[in-house]
């Protein structure tokens, strides 16, 4: 039997309209049931329970970003009630695979086109709880080349941080593309749109060589900008890997499993 959380996620995601320009993306509000969102707020970690992003992801240069993996040793250090809560949410998003497969199917036409010439791939999902503080900024970038889908669950307590959402950029050079990796200088891009950073909302997009996005510098004093990252990546299957159940995408060579 599905929980109210899973049903709400499935309904919202399943009926989302994908915007194509400048790359496939969508933005949703009320993604979790309202009572469950209150529980999320109650179970956010204390600042000292987060780690600098460079210790979690070996990502340097972002001293205002802190992270907590929703699995492994870091999660085990949380107080018992918070640990149980975040493990359950991790299970909703990844453990039962329903949500991951729904995300995959939502972007299926784009995935099939991107990977039509590649075989022996596997896809996997990861969740990361993030807290950004004052002076945080993220230059325009397209995400790592191994990324397939990025989903950003916005977790503020109220609408006072609405201006701090993820921005969508267009390069001033219309022919500029980036396969992924570097963050580019802001002055080389025009801001197209900023998603409202309001409670219980979600910004999701499909990674392309022009999926430029970032965060304008956070000047607000004493800011704590909370969000939950759900990402889908791909990798080549190891030749010796155990055989797993797979599904094809539009009869292409693409295979996936979660």
CATH homolog superfamily: q2cbj1_9rhob like domain
CATH topology: Jelly Rolls
As a whole number of angstroms, the C-alpha radius of gyration is: 18 Å
Cα-to-Cα separation, first versus last residue: 20 Å
Integer average pLDDT: 89
The total of beta strands comes to 13
Structural class: alpha+beta
Shape: globular
What does this structure look like?
There is one protein chain. The chain has 258 residues and is an alpha+beta fold. It has one domain: Jelly Rolls (Sandwich), CATH 2.60.120.620. The chain is 24% helix and 29% strand. It has helices spanning 4-14, 34-42, 53-57, 73-76, 80-95, 98-106, 108-114, and strands at residues 25-29, 51-52, 65-69, 121-133, 138-141, 147-154, 167-171, 189-194, 201-206, 213-215, 224-236, 247-248, 255-256. It has a 7-stranded antiparallel sheet. Strands 5-10-7-8 form a 4-stranded antiparallel sheet, with no helix packed on it. The protein is globular and about 50 Å long. Residues 241-258 have low confidence and may be disordered.
